[in-house]
Amino acid sequence: MSRRRVNSSGSLHPDDEVMPYSDDETDDELDASSEEEEPEAPPGAPQPPVEVKPSEMGWKVKANDRPYHHLPEFQKKVFLCFKKSRYSGNAIKTYKYNVLTFIPLNLYEQFKRVANLYFLALLILQIIPDISTLPWYTTLIPLVVVLGVTAIKDLVDDLARHKMDKEINNRKCEVLLDGRFQESKWRDIQVGDVVHLRKNDFIPADILLLSSSDPNSLCYVETAELDGETNLKFKMGLRVTDERLQHERQLAEFNALIECEEPNNRLDKFVGTMLWDRERYPLDLDNMLLRGCKIRNTEHCHGLVIFAGADTKIMKNSGKTRFKRTKIDELMNYMVYTIFVLLILVAAGLAIGHTFWYEEIGSKAWYLFDGKNHNSSYRGFLSFWGYIIVLNTMVPISLYVSVEVIRLGQSKFINWDLQMYYAEKDTPAKARTTTLNEQLGQIEYIFSDKTGTLTQNIMQFKKCTIAGRTYGDPTTAEGVTLDRGRPVDWSWNQQADKKFDFMDHSLVSCVRSKKDKDVSEFFKLLSLCHTVMVDNKDGELVYQAASPDEGALVTAARNFGYVFLSRTQDTITINEMDQESTYEMLALLDFNSDRKRMSIILKFPDGRIRLYCKGADTVIYERLSPDSRHKETTQAALDIFANATLRTLCLCYKDISAAEYDAWSRKHKEAQVSMSERDVALDRVYEQIESNLLLIGATAIEDKLQDGVPETIAKLAKADIKIWVLTGDKKETAENIGYSCSLLTDDMAIHYGEDVNEKLRIRQTHRRNEPQSLNRRRKRPTEPFFNMPGKNALVITGGWLNEILYEKKKKRRRLRLRRLGRRPPPAIPQDSQPMDDLEKELRQIDFVDMACECEAVICCRVTPKQKANVVSLVKKYKKAVTLSIGDGANDVNMIKTADIGVGLSGQEGMQAVMSSDYAFAQFRFLQRLLLVHGRWSYIRMCKFLRYFFFKNFAFTLVHFWYSFFSGYSSQIAYENWFITLYNLCYSSLPVLLVGLLDQDVNDKLSLKFPKLYLPGQKGALFNYRNFFISLFHGIFVSLIIFFIPYGAFLQTMGQDGEAPSDYQSLAVVTASTLIFTVNLQISLDTSYWTFVNCFAVLGSIAIYFGIVFDIHSAGIHVIFPSVFTFTGAASNALRQPYLWLTIILSVGISLLPVICIQFLHKTIWPSVGDKVHRNRKKYEMEMEEEERKTKPPTFDRGRRSRRSAYAFSHSRGYADLIASGRSIRRRPTPVGAPPGSIREAPQREAENI
């Protein structure tokens, strides 16, 4: 079945290959461009390139001149008249506190919590004698414990940040000071310093490359920290600095002035000039070494610091640190406000009751006279504040500290999970925050990077088709197909890469026989047509490719006996089956994103001239000769390769006569020296020679996914979690990976940018034509965008994203409005521009609604800022909980914007990890993080909060019922010390353990049944409904535990003839009933019993009785007579069997309705969790049986769609570098010298390149 493509016409077409920067331009650029932009360009018209004039560049750096950067003109105002240099130091700071600020700042932050501030106010009230109804220590002790525990946690977190900052800032680097290089710490480096870097050093700042040990100041860097790419990039110094700045003395005399753009977050752009000895030299990104990169395969280099510390591009891309809070946190705060309102209403009602009571009864009873001549209204006022103090436990002070303890424990469980430990890199999972665990159980949208996150960024040559015959499946040397084969033995080839796996022995036999000319031409093309660089280190040849794809192809050719040895500016030498041959390179037609192919024109040793070409099938087939053979069979093979989600590439050749080449060469040279539109002229000339090609075959490369990615995505989809891929890669590459990881399937209709824009334009036009009154009433249209049945997917590029969301000219429009004043909206609005901010917002809402209707969304060629904007849109308009996962610095903004940020660690640098909330090494661990730890954390926290509110209501509202019998006089129903210790000792441990250890089903069943995750997304386990259920449950229990003992005490005689119906005995019985009830209630709510839970419940009851008998003893009363006043109350009351029966009756009546409701709920209306829990034994046995019978899954190759991805993903090669001769060694190794072992550099560890 072929894949459906949805197209539309009549739309504007942004360039899908260009990565836009919507709002990231520097102000200099915009000012420069806006001055010339008075007439508004028509929508979609190509924008002229922006050139920054030297006079408009606001950043000036003087080499070897530190005082220059402290001149008054470079000062900026900090506070009042205090100024400091606009140039940042190189030290970075991520910590919040120091020794002096920790206590005041931490207390300030803690008292920003309303509950803490409330209890501080209560403490002040309790010091006032006329108001105080409870001793001050009943509030002070819990408050000090809460503040202390939180402060210790904050201190530990900040010490870790201090340690990390110190480690980075104290790294060593050689800086040119006083005419010689001296070792200095990173934090002491300043703008304008000249630094000396060695191989494998991290780059400490954004540095202008001056010279290096390589020819022409070439320098290779690894950019994994920036973009997750593991293949090396090359940088070049200016020719003038390369020639004149090689020695220490020359560098010390260097005094150039650099004028460049202001610090910004654009990783792909740098514009500046260097003024030196009255000459100006242009600077661009190729001359810059960015902080976060690593020097590779270059012995040493020198550079000039342009941007330091916070001004560097990697720090500018980090985005603002956002304070993240969970949905439960927000809900919990609103519930505390609700309790506070209830408290005020109840206290006000009781105060009014006391006013009337005193007027009618209290003032007339002589025995109640307290010696104070207060009137009833004033007494009511004092009673109000008294009840605020008495009922203060309705607002639970220990709630926040208990939540922090639970979150800390859950974070430790994530850290200790061995199933999320990646042994290959010795990388455990790490919860870098302790405040977001339960939010992991509520994720609705995941935004993922591609390179290094879904993929390993490792390319493998898997299959090929040559002259109509396909190779790559397990086959014997005789051509017999096998179900399971063994890898080829490369021992016959001394120069082979032993790590290269290939299963088809017939192709090896064919190559070694030298009988098939097509096979020979195929591998000869792979060994000659490329831009791979080769280096000779101690007799060992090492390859360096511009992309992993090209490295994989050259390595494949090497293993099959066609070994690329060396190249010069105009020759290329290979070893063809142990015979060395040198070819003259007449022209190199490099790859670019428009051509989607590359060619090389070679002169053979026998004088023949031949063009070799490789590229995307879509462009190669257009240029094939009518006489070319095997087109249909190759196309069928391409379909099969595409079905297996392999990256395909077509190979072809053409013989050229000397006369034809001479004529074309003249045109080529004219195009090379063209002053205007040189690239267009070159492309036109390339088209002329790249025609009438003869097809040889095609290659198929696997862009290796990380282990378990398709299974993880499928499992998360079953949990109703939508996954969006946001990547800087090209459209076809991203789409191909979408199929590879099962995000896209063939039964989906793929919608591209033009189709999306058209649908949104129609919706916008329809809205404009509607009456305004109707528009106001219905802002959110209800009709779906896709009315056809079936699944839909969205593949959209950054250019289209800007077009759709009206982001294209935002800054330019803002600057123009600032200059000209606000203009009224046009009378006839254009479709491509919004009439006002409301229309722009409605357009964004439409886009989010459309995207959320799709099963999958892939945004490609997007910038770091656009990634963050997409996340923000979904958060803003869907009110959904979002998670972002990435591995490079270009993902940091997205990670910080999402509710949860996950960084992948272990191979592509630590920038994303340092900004993340959770970190681990493999994408597949995400399913365990969400479906196990996240779901458990959410269930535990919800159960904890429901129970916590219940036990506090049940405890506090006894005072309310008692007030009806005490003249509303703020008299407490319990002993003072019971109130102090209730939440700290008597009822805290069982519920804490439920919050830490409880689980409805085990981890294996949690993964087997992803539907168990759905209640968390809906917030079904903790909301205002649950809150009011807890409130009414607490009211019911407080009624029972007060009125049953009260009724039992009426007109009662004890066993010894004494009446136990005194106030102190009632307080003891009520408190004992409460302790039994709340501890047995948590037992009913516990799903997962351990010895620790059992011990906690029994231990809490035992602790209660132990403390009660101690503080009611005569001994402690003698020592502190005014503090411990309930002398002998417990021993007197609890020796009466009648009162024990009262306690048992009260506890039974309190728990019986709960038991009945739980029974009915689980039998008549069971949830998915209840069903799984009921049948867990059966499911566990089935899973054990499946594990024993599990076989490797077979890949479905039934699709009939063709996708080519290799050429689209290929970055621009090294052709310019090769043609310039700047990469060629000054003393090249003789071609005839016998090479040592030849190997390709590992993608992650290019130590010996």
From TrEMBL:
Give the residues the record marks as binding Mg(2+).
D449, T451, D887, D891
Ranges for the region named Disordered are 1-53, 1183-1207, 1219-1249
Q: Which residues form the active site?
A: D449 (4-aspartylphosphate intermediate)
How does this protein sit in the membrane?
Multi-pass membrane protein
- Per its UniProt entry, what is the enzyme's top EC class, as one word? translocase
- In this chain the P-type ATPase C-terminal domain maps to 913-1167
The entry's localization annotation reads:
Apical cell membrane; Cell membrane; Cell projection; Endoplasmic reticulum
InterPro entries from the UniProt entry: ATPase_P-typ_cyto_dom_N, ATPase_P-typ_P_site, ATPase_P-typ_TM_dom_sf, ATPase_P-typ_transduc_dom_A_sf, ATPase_P-type_domA, HAD-like_sf, HAD_sf, P-type_ATPase_IV
Q: Where is the composition biased (Acidic residues)?
A: 22-40
Q: What is its main location?
A: membrane
For activity, the cofactor(s) needed are: Mg(2+)
The record's subunit annotation is: Component of a P4-ATPase flippase complex which consists of a catalytic alpha subunit ATP8B1 and an accessory beta subunit TMEM30A. The flippase ATP8B1:TMEM30A complex can form an intermediate phosphoenzyme in vitro. Also interacts with beta subunit TMEM30B.
According to UniProt, the name of this protein is: Phospholipid-transporting ATPase
- In its UniProt entry, the species of origin is given as Labrus bergylta
